[in-house]
Please model this.
Amino acid sequence: MASVLFVCLHNAGRSQMSQALFERAAGGRHTALSAGTTPAEHVHPEVIEVMREVGIDLAGRKPRLLRRDLAEQADVVVTMGCGDACPVIPGKRYRDWDLADPKGRPLDEVRATRDEIARRVDLLARELDDAPA
Model:
């Protein structure tokens, strides 16, 4: 079982969607957390709306601050726009996903981001399934 940490700036959009979609794709075979370098007060409403469309409710989730210990727990750290604020821990696998921040975007654009994240987390979950223990 691998652990993945998804990190973006505010932990209110991309990283929240990534965590939830990864949890669904992994089906309990792997774990996920998400965090932000400067967390927002709440998950973006447009993100909550497009995730409900695919049966995932993020309304109760709270953005959390990225702490070094969260990164240390993860086997894989996926960053999305947090730049140099993300800690680099030796021995961890890092991925940087170039995805637009969904805050304030039209729903069609947020859906496109959600669908791209779903594609990427499906690939990541399969990659982790195939990795040697």
The chain has four helices and four strands. The first strand starts at residue 3 and ends at 8. The mean pLDDT is 93. Strands lie at 3-8, 31-36, 76-80, 93-96.
